[in-house]
Amino acid sequence: MKIYTKTGDNGTTSLFGGTRVPKHHIRIDSYGTVDELNSWLGLIADQNIAKDYQNELQAIQIKLFTVGAILATEPQKATLKNGKERLNIERISNDDVLYLEMAMDKMDEVLPQMTHFILPGGHPIVSYCHIARTVCRRAERKTTILYENEPFDETVLTYLNRLSDYLFVLARKLSMDLGVEEIKWIPEKRD
């Protein structure tokens, strides 16, 4: 099977179920941004970080493929003519959200209390986490637009929201692990 089909040469692509839409459609933009996020997570996992974090990131990457499949499926095409669901896969669940929360709680136990906003950076690995966090926030913004127009399981929105929090906490924890000082944002006062 060839990877190229030439069917998108005119600026359209197919959703799961066959409907063709412009490549700038909000549905494509939503799952495309999730795909971009997934690539950033792969880059973070490829760094010299603890195996536990690599495993967590890989588990999240797998869930993001599920998110992408959900977003790529139009609600009116979600059920086949025989009554079965088009996506015969596990969905994003509250347990998946809880997984992120538990991972954050574990990292938070050893982190110093945050008293100021923190400037992104300090080490390339930490910066990758912050970039992934902002891409996650963009994915969340895109999916909320899609959700307003064509609702899907709200747990997807919750998952993306929690994932951006996870990436922030991971950035802080990796700063600690790497011995990098967090740079606090302390705005200058006006005279």
From TrEMBL:
UniProt catalytic activity: 2 cob(II)alamin + reduced [electron-transfer flavoprotein] + 2 ATP = 2 adenosylcob(III)alamin + 2 triphosphate + oxidized [electron-transfer flavoprotein] + 3 H(+); 2 cob(II)yrinate a,c diamide + reduced [electron-transfer flavoprotein] + 2 ATP = 2 adenosylcob(III)yrinate a,c-diamide + 2 triphosphate + oxidized [electron-transfer flavoprotein] + 3 H(+)
The organism's taxonomy opens as: Bacteria, Pseudomonadati, Bacteroidota, Flavobacteriia, Flavobacteriales
What domain of life is recorded for the organism? Bacteria
Native source organism of the sequence = Maribacter flavus
Task: State which pathway it belongs to.
Answer: Cofactor biosynthesis; adenosylcobalamin biosynthesis; adenosylcobalamin from cob(II)yrinate a,c-diamide: step 2/7
Q: Which family does it belong to?
A: Belongs to the Cob(I)alamin adenosyltransferase family.
Q: What protein name is recorded for this chain?
A: Corrinoid adenosyltransferase
Give every Cobalamin adenosyltransferase-like domain span.
3-173
EC id:
2.5.1.17
Q: Where are the transmembrane segments?
A: none
Listed A to Z, the keywords are:
ATP-binding, Cobalamin biosynthesis, Nucleotide-binding, Transferase
Q: Which GO terms describe its molecular function?
A: corrinoid adenosyltransferase activity
Any keyword Ribonucleoprotein?
no
